[in-house]
Amino acid sequence: MKVIVDATTLDGKPSGATTRLAALGLAHQARGAVDVEYLVRPDSDPLPGLPCLAFDGMETPFRRAMAGSRLDHFLVERGADVFCAGALPLPKIKSVPTVLTMHDLRFLSPDAGQGLLRRLWGVTNLRRNLGRASRVVAVSETTAGMLLERQLVKKKSLVVVPNAGTPGVERVLDVHEIGSFRRHADLSTRYVLALGPAEPHKRVEDLLELLAAVRSHEAGEDLALVLAGRVDMRRAFAYARLAERLHVASAFRMVGVLSKHELSVVLSGADAFVSAARHEGFAIPLVDAQRLAVPVVAVSGGAVAEVAGDGAWLAEPGDLAGLAAALLDATTPGDLREARLRAGLRRAEKWSWERSAVELESVWKDARKT
Q1: Domains and CATH numbers, the chain
Q2: Residue 236 CA to chain centroid, in angstroms?
Q3: pTM higher than 0.85, yes or no?
Q4: Residue 96 pLDDT more than 70?
């Protein structure tokens, strides 16, 4: 059986979609049960070590919608049995069944920083476009529930195949490596870590307000916020200006995109992982933090509560005081903190790329029969 997976939306930079495709791809390779190839942009290598095929004209929503006949010809030429898509809109293809992976539905939410045209397309065309898929794969029960609640897909065509932690991210015990990062970032205090990309739905402004709130307390006055991930120059300047207005500029660092080992170092040295996002489809970094016994402090929007279970400190969306109290609790040593960290370790063990690969291969085989 051969499956062609669309990875043309990947630009070579870190993202949840990249982590999922790379981790599942390695798991499929190790199993050897299915022949999987990945469509990527020409002159791009976002999935090192996996068999990639250059395919132009799928990197924007409009071009993806118009790519049906050309993609059909390509799939037949490659002998594909299933086409696995990871972005909308779905091209109209006839040669093989389509399996679509849905990460979240934040583009339908006015407060997620999505464009008006995309939201309007979702309201008017999403159900019809999803009808082109033989199977829809959600990365969490939360995303699946939203799809059913909005009556966007039929229950019989919907399957949950969850994410897991980032492969290669492990606890770093070498204090010299962590100290080297602190010196590089000019940090002489404790810090909490937030991971990007720094786009509107990550709500970095809320994190800066959170930093100001916790630093106003004696127990949190020595906390700093480290933001790691992609951030464009315009947003970086905006965040820096907001930090100055909130009088926390001296405690705010933007360190850019991290390699897996750098992420391991920075996460291992953090007093907590923090997220203010309200529309997470799964939240892979949350699992990374729990695996490394780093306290997780987050807003309980999207799939966060489902993924974190009882191994995190959560607050309701919009409750800044509650989130600040949660962060202060999470960064204060004590028996309650240790018990919740142990619960987080147990929770992180629930997620496995190997199990998800087996489940996804089963979905592909079922789709081929339709």
Answers
A1: 2-164+352-369 (3.40.50.2000), 175-348 (3.40.50.2000)
A2: 21
A3: yes
A4: yes
Instruction: Identify the band that residue 111 occupies on the pLDDT scale cut at 50, 70 and 90.
Output: confident
Q: Please check whether residue 341 is in contact with residue 295, taking contact to mean a CB–CB distance below 8 angstroms.
A: yes
Residue 362: CB atoms within 10 Å:
12
pLDDT, tens only, 237-252: 999 999 999 999 999 9
The C-alpha atoms of residue 256 and residue 178 are separated, in whole angstroms, by 17
**Model pLDDT, residue 114:** 65
Give the model's pLDDT for residue 166. 97
Q: Nearest 5 degrees, angle CA 175-CA 176-CA 180?
A: 120
DSSP one-letter string for 292-350: TT--EEEE--TTHHHHHTTSSEEE-TT-HHHHHHHHHHHTS-SHHHHHHHHHHHHHHTT
* Residue 59 CB contacts under 8 Å (≥ 6 apart), including other chains: 8, 9, 41
Stated length of the chain: 370
Residue type at 321 in one-letter notation:
A
At 370 the pLDDT is 77
